Amino acid sequence: MKRTVAHAAFLAVLLAVAAAAFEAQPVSQEGAALEPGDTFSDTLSSGELGPEMVVVPAGTFRMGCVSGVECNENELPVREVTIPWRFAVSKYVVTLDEFVRFLRSGAQPGYKQHEPGRSPAGWVSWSDARAYAEWLSEETGEEYRLLSEAEWEYVSRAGSTTPYPWGEEFGTNRANCWACADEFRFSAPVGQFPPNAWGLHDMQGNGWEWVEDCWNDSYEGAPSDGSAWLEGDCSQHVIRGGSWRDGPKEMRSAFRFPLAERSGFRGESFRVARELAP
């Protein structure tokens, strides 16, 4: 009897140790059955965690000024785009904390703001945003990149067809911008406003977001499969979402703007996408 009890106790200890070890290991995202809405972070070579990522579904949507409100010519023609794959998108724009970690790794982009914090890493060039994604890929062994413009609008809308992801009217305290009646005079720490329907924060306001695409004056001839448009005026790239110093018009999901990759004109920030296994 004593031997049986001792054996059972020993097994219990082994099970407890195994359970603790399992909990301490980062989840393998490629092996896990990730569903839309799930969140995860990959582990960097330092043992620290990378950006928090949100899984978004495959799907089809209408891209451009579908609401008919304050449309610009460059937001037309409205067209149907199919995103044939699920993928993950960073829950927030890349923060100063995350970008400074990249700088201190030995990477030397043309970036001047070295103080850490939870505000967006602003004034980042398109090239430096891409360099961060490449570094993140090397650190994690996974494939990180900038979003395509179609992916950005798909994620921003999160199923909506209204001017703003939350509805027809701009309202207040939805985003950080100059007319938003919020408490912030400049950029705010990420996550201060409600997320959209897919759990992503600050898709509108706080900081413009670079995407991969070259600039084109309309959507004539644009890809319909969600991939980046790498033809056109590639001396300029697309920025999306508006910033803390822009107004309601720029907060619309359809609004887009061209910018030279190193202009530093509008306090550009960015978020990253990560490929997922089929």
Question: What is the number of helices?
Answer: 5
Head-to-tail CA distance between termini: 52 Å
Secondary structure: number of strands: 10
Largest sheet: 5 strands, antiparallel
* Helical coverage, percent range: 10-25%
Estimate the global geometry from the Cα principal axes: globular
Overview of the molecule:
The radius of gyration is 21 Å and the shape is globular. The protein starts with a helix and ends with a strand. The protein contains five helices and ten strands; from the N terminus they run αβββββααβαββαββ. The strands form three sheets. A five-stranded antiparallel beta sheet has the order 1-2-5-10-6. Strands 7-8-9 form a three-stranded antiparallel beta sheet, sandwiched between helices. It is α+β, with helices and mostly antiparallel strands and 278 residues long. The model is unreliable at 1-29 (pLDDT under 50). 22% of the residues lie in helices and 17% in strands.
